[in-house]
Amino acid sequence: MSTKESSFNVLGDPLENCSCDPMTGYLRDGFCNTTPDDYGTHVVCAVVTKEFLEYSLSRGNDLITPVPHWSFPGLKPGDKWCLCVSRWKEAEKAGVAPFVDLKATHELALKYVSLKLLKQNTVPSL
After folding, report:
1. Predicted confidence (pLDDT) per residue in 81-122, tens digit
2. Do 63 and 57 meet the contact criterion of CB atoms below 8 Å apart?
3. Domain boundaries, the chain
């Protein structure tokens, strides 16, 4: 089990906040933390793009439409969101991966993707 007090990012530093507006994270605490019951492994802090959102929708995961009973506002381009590492990797292979905030991406992502690949997709301003 992971908590933000003991979590580290892919750079080996303490995990930073991904987003509180919209509130993200598997635990909805703003951090890309994970727990054993997070089967999607929502550990990649990404800045979503229109292309990624459309790709995700085409793959059966609608991140655009609000779902009020889940307190999900729906995402728009530019929002930061904790993505499933497998979906990010799939989008990267399809050429539509959103940029990654390395400081807010949980170290567990390195079990699935290389730091080199994540760095190649880093948010330009970070």
Report:
1. 999 999 999 999 999 999 999 999 999 999 999 999 999 999
2. yes
3. 1-115
Please give the Cα distance from 61 to 113 (Å, whole number). Answer: 21
**C-alpha distances in angstroms, 102 versus 12, 27, 49, 58?**
10, 19, 17, 26
pTM of structure: 0.91
Task: Identify the CATH homologous superfamily for domain 1-115.
Answer: Protein of unknown function DUF2237 (3.30.56.110)
Please state whether beta strands 42-47 and 99-100 pair in parallel, antiparallel, or not at all (unpaired): antiparallel
Quick one: which of 59, 62, 31 has its CA closest to 44? Answer: 31
Residues contacting 102, CB < 8 A, separation 6+: 9, 10, 11, 118, 119, 122, 126
CA 108 to chain centre: 12
- DSSP string over 23-63: B-STTSSSS----TT-TT-EEEEEE--HHHHHHHHHTT---
Q: Are 65 and 74 in contact (CB under 8 A)?
A: yes
